[in-house]
Amino acid sequence: MAKNFVDIINVVGKIIFYILAIILLYQILRAILGGTWSTEDMIIALVIFNLTATLTLFGLIYKLNAKISDHIGWHRGLGNAKKK
Predict the structure, then answer these.
(1) How far, in Å, CA of 43 to CA of 37, rounded?
(2) pLDDT tens digits along 14-60
(3) How far apart, in whole angstroms, are the C-alpha atoms of residue 9 and residue 70?
(4) What are φ and ψ of residue 77, in 5° steps?
(5) pLDDT greater than 70 at residue 4
(6) What are the E-state strand segments in 1-84?
(7) What is the span of the domain harbouring residue 46?
(8) pLDDT of 80
(9) Cα torsion 78, 79, 80, 83: sign
(10) Are 58 and 13 in contact (CB under 8 A)?
């Protein structure tokens, strides 16, 4: 259950990350061409983008840590005990 919940949160985080990335890229291009958000709004958007990216990376690291723990357990011989 917990592993499935983490996967769902990870997918939702990635979706939000990509949506924010597209919006920010669009706004940065508009800033280069002229006429866009104010500077404060752009800074706040970049901070939110950074926070979303960080939380998405936490989910990926958590998932990777579980795989590494299983692999180390396999080297210790715990993998065979789980399968029986």
Answers:
(1) 10
(2) 888 889 889 888 888 887 777 767 778 778 888 888 888 887 787 77
(3) 21
(4) 95, 5
(5) yes
(6) none
(7) 2-83
(8) 53
(9) positive
(10) no
